[in-house]
Amino acid sequence: MSPSPRTALAIPRAVLPRASCKHSYLSQGQRRWITIAELDKAQDGRERVVVLGSGWAGYTLGRELDHRKYQPVVVSPRSYFVFTPLLASTSTGTLEFRTALEPIRRRNATATFFQGWADSVDLEKKELEIEEAVEDPMQSMALVDGQGEAENESEKQARKEKGKLFRMKYDKLIVTVGCYSQTFNTPGVKEHAYFLKDVGDARRIRNRFLSCFETAALPTTSPKMREHLLNFAVVGGGPTGIEWSAELHDIISEDMAKFYPELVKYAKITVYDVAPTVLSMFDQKLAKYAMDTFKREGIEIKTSHHVKSLRKGAPGVVEGGADVKDNTTCYTLNTDEDGEVGVGMCVWSTGLMTNPFVEKALSTKVKQHEKSHAIMTNERLQVKRPDDSVMRDVYALGDCAVLEGTAYPATAQVANQKATWLSKRLNKGDIEGNKFTYKDLGVMAYVGNWNAILQTSGAGNVSGRVAWFIWRGAYLAKSLLPFSFPSFLFRPGNPPRYHHHVVHPKPYPPTTRRPCFPPPPPTLPNLVNMPETKYFHHNLALSPQSEPAKTTFPAKLAYWTFGDASKPAVLLPSCYGGTLANTLPFLYDEEARPNPILPPSKYFIIVTGLLSGSESSSPSNQPAPHSGPNFPHVTYEDNIRLQHALCTEELGVEKLYLYCGFSMGGQQAYHVSALFPEFVENMVCLAGSARTSAHNWCFLEGPRHALVTARDYHDGVYTKPANEGVKAFFRVYAPWALSQGWFRQKCWEQAGFKTLEEYLTANWSGGQGVDANDLLWLLWTWQKGDITLYYPEDQGDLAKTLGRIKARCLVFPSRTDTYFPPEDSEEEVKHLRDGRLAVIETVWGHMAGGGSGTAEDTECIIREVKKFLEL
């Protein structure tokens, strides 16, 4: 029996805990799992509109359908929408992957989402059968022929018995399942080619590109193999293939030439196309402009070329043969015209093929296009039966559908216009009196080095730099990802490009652009497996103590998450000058410490950056009118309220199992426990205090004056980077971060330095990327730290305010800390309802509290936190 097809769909997944769970921190109204019975009950007389797919058409419909009139349900194997025009840029590092993604699940979403594949549809009973896709091994990768086909009937029945299949009724069905990547059944393409349809493809391409250069740089790699590895083939001369070739050329000429100057001579880019010309949808003059531009840049275009096969291994080496090294480090592309050619990577972009769901589950039930086999619709986007009659409650749009009598291209522009039109008509209930009309807004393509081509239906053609600005601006205007606007429109160095992470096999996020402060010792590295940095945007009402006070500020909070939101939530805030990467990784990351006490498999880890700390909104990264010295002075309260909004509004976390911070992070632990007493169950303050003492405040005046007395500081403004001021700041800061015993015992020798000066030069001299304004603004926040300000009625009585804290508290100073001495901590613990004190016996001073002391110091922290949490 032939397997039944599955389409771009979804299945229910419990991403939040049930109410009976021990750590059920989310209210019933915030649960994101649901049964079909509950879904039916919530229908409340509305028509259920099921949208299959989360591409340009499906995502738009899920957002725009009126939930007061309909019950929208989006079913897709992908839990996110991909802004496909940006994929080429993300694959080369010009943009971060997150700029091309938008999750389907959002707290303000009005559509229910299930992640899975549709196996079948009964158009008479109006019923779908759906199979889960949560554990799909090809998640986030391009769909090629052969994927998405279900098992035989016996296997299918077994999965159904295991709860992997479910049925769902609908009133209206909208099919937007898209298409698969066309391979023409070319041998080896499905297995060895690199596609560019999803973010996973972009990641795979970037990693392969980097590994090609790294392998070529090895002394064991022969010159011939270097030629193969750095020969990049692109099959397909459409906009995707051309734009990716342009992006690839830019990164090689602008970045790899600096990192691998001896290898650039081997680099080669070749575009293959079976047609006699590339960019056939463009005007002939624009296509010629693109070809001429490529020729000048050294990109070879080979038209009228027919690819026969793609296999692993070097030319002349049989796959699986004796030459194991050559057989596993490159590929062989075989064409009728050129024969075998060794390539490091082959990116395949040759068009689309029909989705198996359309081809097998619907082919006998709907009318299909004679050549493409796409679903035929009328002018209202309603699906036609084979006898030309119309299904009034079934619609199809996007790449999987064709409006009869038209030849609209299979583009995002067409899909988006159809989805917007259909959602408006359904919301108004006037679809029978209207017909869809397409407005051609033009086509664009990037051709490299700030040049683009633009073809419009009425305004003429544009090429060059002007077209590039229009191209970038158009994606800015049409992007569904407002938080990413600045990052892809005027990203620093684009061009010249910003590829700081490009030389690392595991791409580093831009948050690691500056050195750690204070630097961790070699035994405690930064987090190794760094995730993509996320940003939470929030209109923050500044606190009464902020400057300016009680105004609204468009704040951006940088954060990482690890693990499942259904697990107990742990928040780790960064410290002064800290980064997401060096914020207590030894507590949760196995790369930093085997068997951590807070593994993401058991806890939902949230790591946040400080305002003014360079990763979240800061003087150094905030656009006008809040850039540089115009950035507001923010308090701990502002940071805590922003973190609270992230948890409750974005992540769905109503209560934290643990809030643990070091230094300024430790002070935040006190502040969150005082400001939101019901929000935190357990609090750990590592080398911090509830109120910045007079002694601490006075110390901070020293490094502050080192910055404001710098020769480049005039009337509150730095006229140029304050390199000398920053160096002076660090030298003032250094002795206070450690202890007299540390200097007396010459502990710099333990860190591998012969002299104290060598240590200070390497670790306490500032460095490129450290912004003086960021340092100043953080000092201001630190100096203003005082939890009694939340309760004016306490009249500054710290003991009274400490008594308001309901969380279980572990206060953990270092014996030799000169910022937050243990005597202050002992006094604070006396007034806590449920507080305990532990002390790190060390000469590493303040630094020991963050894991930058000795291995014994860090083990002491781990042991006491584990005991405190009763783990």
What secondary-structure arrangement, pairings included, does this model have?
Elements: E1 7-10, H1 36-41, E2 47-52, H2 56-64, E3 70-75, E4 80-82, H3 87-92, E5 101-103, E6 112-122, E7 127-132, H4 153-161, E8 165-169, E9 172-175, E10 180-181, H5 189-192, H6 199-216, H7 223-229, E11 231-235, H8 239-259, E12 268-272, H9 284-297, E13 300-302, E14 307-312, H10 324-329, E15 331-335, E16 339-343, E17 345-348, E18 352-353, H11 356-361, E19 375-377, E20 382-384, E21 390-396, E22 401-403, H12 412-428, E23 443-448, E24 451-455, E25 461-464, H13 465-478, H14 485-489, E26 534-541, E27 552-562, E28 569-573, E29 604-608, H15 636-651, E30 656-662, H16 664-675, E31 680-686, H17 694-708, E32 713-714, E33 717-718, H18 723-737, H19 740-744, H20 756-763, H21 772-783, H22 798-802, E34 808-812, H23 822-829, E35 835-837, H24 855-868
Parallel strand pairs: 2-3, 2-9, 3-6, 9-21, 11-12, 11-17, 12-13, 19-22, 28-29, 28-30, 30-31, 31-34, 34-35
Antiparallel strand pairs: 1-6, 4-5, 6-7, 7-8, 10-18, 14-15, 15-16, 20-21, 23-24, 24-25, 26-27, 27-29, 32-33
Helix pairs in contact: 2-12, 6-7, 15-16, 17-18, 17-21
Keywords: FAD, Flavoprotein, NAD, Oxidoreductase
Organism: Recurvomyces mirabilis
Family: Belongs to the NADH dehydrogenase family.
Plain-language structure description:
Helix content is 29%, strand content 20%. Helix 17 (694-708) runs antiparallel to helix 18 (723-737) and helix 17 runs antiparallel to helix 21 (772-783). The radius of gyration is 30 Å and the shape is globular. Mean pLDDT is 84; it is low at 1-32, 321-327 and 480-528.
